[in-house]
Amino acid sequence: MASNQGAPPPDERELRLWKVGRALTLTFVAAVLVAGGIFYGLVVLLDFKAIDTTAKLDAQTLFDLVKLSFGVVAGAGALVALVVAYRRQRVDEAGAHREATRLHTERFSQAVDKLGSDSPAVRLGGVHALAGLADDAPTQDLRQTCIDVLCAYLRLPFAPDPGEYPAQQEAHHRYLALRAVRHTILRLIGDHYRRPQGTHRSWQGCDLDLSGVIIDGSMDFSGAVFSDGMVSFNDVTFSDGTVYFGSAEFSGGTVSFVGAAFSDCMVYFGSAAFSGGKVSFSNAEFSGGGMVSFGSAAFSGGMVSFNNAEFSGGQVAFSNAAFSGSMVYFSNAAFSGGEVLFAGAVFSGGMVYFGGAAFTSGAVSFGSAAFTSGTVSFGSADFSGGEVLFEHATGPAPNGLLTAVSTPGSATVELPPAWLIPVP
Question: Which one has a higher pLDDT value, 2 or 146?
């Protein structure tokens, strides 16, 4: 028995085409049923009681019957023409789809060849060609393929900067040229994710795999909407420049920063909205002299995870953030250096969990934070070093906090006086 594994799948548009005979039969039956229904409705509407069976067939009636017969024949012919025109239209659409796919494949091959060129300028042309192909792709799958190739290019290893020494000048210039190619891809990705989903040149809803990429320059996701698909920044190193997620909307799908390293850079999530889906910073490392800002971000739905994250340097700011409905986890997070700010944050709903978190050094501030409703838990947290400040915080003490800080340790913990007064 012959195998069909190597045969290409038939075009879906052709699979939807009926044979002419079947289409005519079904169309004729449908027309008869519709005509009969209309006739019956008119009879009921005009309240005909009976048909006079004694009337004789005169010449006028005979002429009317002949006209009706010709009308039926003309209608049947129009029906056949309509079905044939429909089939021709569908065949033309299938042919146009195949032609568009063929042209896309040819352009794709040429763009990939340019991306593999030794010349940085030719590679840059390949990047723009692939981005244009993604914009014009006839199907979502072909668009995704173009995006996957651009992401794969970013994941390729590259030689480090040899420095600006005279003997290495040529290699240094080549490094800068290839770095410009990578930065152009990052810029194009950000531009396309800011465009509303469903519009031309929008890549929202597509998967984006930047796992392990070194982002050593600026990248702008401000205003981007992550409402579907899988976006991966797993094990990405943010080592220089500024990455903007300001006013971005995380409302669905999965966005993962698992194992990402934030060092000596600025990553800004200010005014971002976390309202659905899953965003994970588990095992991420915040170190060096950089800054990651979630200032004024709104956590109103979905889940955001900082489980096992390590805050060991720099500054991570959740200042004035609103926790009103999300599940936000800092389980087993390590606050071992740097500065983490929750100053002015409002905890009014959802759940924020610091269970098992270790505060061993550095400074963590909840100054002027408002604990009004929802659940904030410090169960099993370890306050063994550093400085944790709750000065001017309002509302009831978070669950488990007073028990955790009463355990002997060397941390400096400042609590509002109201929390130290036993409730009668």
Answer: 146
